[in-house]
Automatic annotation (TrEMBL):
InterPro entries: Rhodanese-like_dom, Rhodanese-like_dom_sf, Rhodanese_C, TrhO, TRHO_N. Its EC number is 1.14.-.-. SMART domains: RHOD (SM00450). Catalyzes oxygen-dependent 5-hydroxyuridine (ho5U) modification at position 34 in tRNAs, the first step in 5-carboxymethoxyuridine (cmo5U) biosynthesis. May be part of an alternate pathway, which is able to bypass cmo5U biogenesis in a subset of tRNAs under aerobic conditions. Keywords: Oxidoreductase, tRNA processing. The gene is trhO. Transmembrane segments: none annotated. SUPFAM superfamilies: Rhodanese/Cell cycle control phosphatase. This is tRNA uridine(34) hydroxylase. One of its GO terms (biological process) is tRNA modification. HAMAP family: TrhO.
Length: 455
């Protein structure tokens, strides 16, 4: 029986594109008593692998916490795999606002001590004595109450790009750190204030609310299903959002826009921006906010030091990394001296700018001619492969790469490889590759730009 992934992320991305089927990004969690987490894990792997469900899942004696991508046409079959367990009957699945077929490219189910690292000793308090669960409308109403203190139980890099108006946003790297800090800060308000708590999907508040009640807080409330479920409800019921900005998420999208307010700044130039990225130097991999101009100028790096490193031959980079921890195991999230505009702790409620709403009709008119289509993207080496179908493409040409997920991206072609060797020009029928800083999808079209004029 196959219990682990056999495909690489690149192979999986290619299969997903080729299948051309819509996928749903979703998350759920449940606290329950699991006798044999290892067997539970294996059973889930077999059931989900058969449905082509992907994601990052943690199971423990205390329950399950899952972030997943499921083929849309298998959604009901997927739900059936949950319903076989009594504790997941009728479970709420948080479906993401923005969909991306590549949100997860592997099925990883890990057995852990806990489903959320909270640092709490569960034996010392009653974990089932939770706070009152609130729906979006009730949460908004309570926010209006002057007697309410609202606390964001997420980390600094999450609250920086979006949070509820007036929320306390602890300057913490992880959930475990935030509990004692908040407890200390709110010592004098245990009796008379409403403690209103929220997180991304609700899971962190499930136990934190019980912990705070145990600490003596009398009126403890939590946002049911977190920001994800809040967003769904305000859209469905036409309620005004009291959450401003973006909801940070842990798949490769790194954020879902909730309102068009931009409340964060590019960490390098200070311009209003809320797009997270990871430093292109694999040995650094720092998570930080970078605007498009800085991305181009810095080649997606967090510092000139990292920019220097990515230009070294690969063997030298590997040599430099020896003795260091593997890049993405280093949890330095957005904390670096090189980033002058990083903000955490007390965050502003005032938007710095409005995000552009993508509307095709308002776009700049581009005179262009179709040249070919995308065939593949090699993520590791950042190389895109296209098939030239019409016209010619020459080095120095400005091109537009366009597709539903990719959007419209303009680049100048500085090098072309035809059948693996340099070429100044590519002709119809030829398969070409060149370096591209972003992923392209199978359906993307390649245009040559002839002329640009503002509409
Ligand atoms: Zn910038
Ligand atoms: Zn870096």
């Amino acid at each position: 029986m196959q219990l682990y992934n056999t495909l690489s992320a690149e192979e999986r991305a290619r299969l997903i594109d080729e299948a051309g089927k819509e996928r749903l990004t979703l998350s759920f969690y449940a606290y329950a008593k699991i006798e044999d987490p290892k067997k539970f894990r294996d059973d889930l792997f077999i059931a989900w692998n058969a449905l082509d469900a992907l994601g990052r899942i943690y199971v423990a004696h205390e329950g399950i916490n899952a972030q997943m991508s499921v083929p849309a046409d298998q959604f009901e079959a997927f739900r059936d795999t949950l319903e076989v367990y009594d504790f997941m009957k009728g479970i709420r699945l948080n479906v993401a606002v923005e969909q991306d077929n590549h949100s997860f490219l592997k099925l990883t189910i890990k057995v852990r001590n806990k489903i959320v690292a909270d640092g709490l000793n569960d034996e010392t308090f009653d974990v089932t004595n939770k706070g009152v669960h609130l729906k979006a409308k009730e949460f908004n109403d309570l926010l209006e109450d002057p007697n309410t203190i609202v606390v964001d139980f997420r980390n600094h890099y999450e609250s920086e790009v979006g949070h509820f108006e007036g929320a306390i946003t602890p300057d913490v790297e992880n959930f475990r750190e935030s509990l004692p800090i908040i407890n200390e800060q709110l010592q004098d308000f245990k009796e008379d204030k409403n403690l209103l708590m929220y997180c991304t999907g609700g899971i962190r508040c499930e136990k934190a609310s019980a912990y705070f009640k145990h600490q003596g807080f009398k009126n403890v409330f939590q946002l049911e299903g977190g920001i994800i479920e809040y967003t769904r409800q305000i859209k469905e019921e036409g309620i005004a959002s009291k959450f401003i900005g973006k909801n940070f998420v842990f798949d490769h999208r790194l954020g879902e826009r909730i309102t068009d307010d931009i409340i964060a700044q590019c960490h390098q130039c200070g311009k209003p921006c809320d797009n997270h990225t990871n430093c292109a130097n694999d040995a650094c991999h720092l998570l930080f906010i970078q605007c498009d101009e800085c991305k181009a100028a810095m080649e997606n790096c967090c510092s000139t030091e990292c920019q220097g490193i990515i230009h070294l031959p690969w063997e030298e980079q590997v040599e430099l990394r020896k003795g260091l921890q593997v890049g993405n195991k280093v949890f330095r999230k957005g904390k670096s001296e090189a980033l002058k505009f990083k903000k955490s702790g007390d965050l502003p409620d005032k938007p710095l700018a409005k995000a552009e709403i993508k509307d095709i009709r308002q776009k700049i008119k581009v005179k262009k001619t179709l040249v070919g289509k995308a065939e593949h993207y090699f993520s590791k080496s950042k190389i895109a492969q296209f098939l030239i179908e019409n016209n010619e493409l020459s080095v120095g040409d400005k091109v537009l790469i366009s597709g539903p997920t990719t959007g419209d991206q303009e680049v100048t072609v500085s090098q072309i490889f035809v059948n693996g060797s340099f070429s100044d020009v590519a002709k119809p029928g030829e398969q070409i590759t060149f370096e591209l800083p972003f992923r392209v999808r199978l359906s993307d079209k390649l245009y040559k730009i002839l002329d640009t004029e503002n509409a």
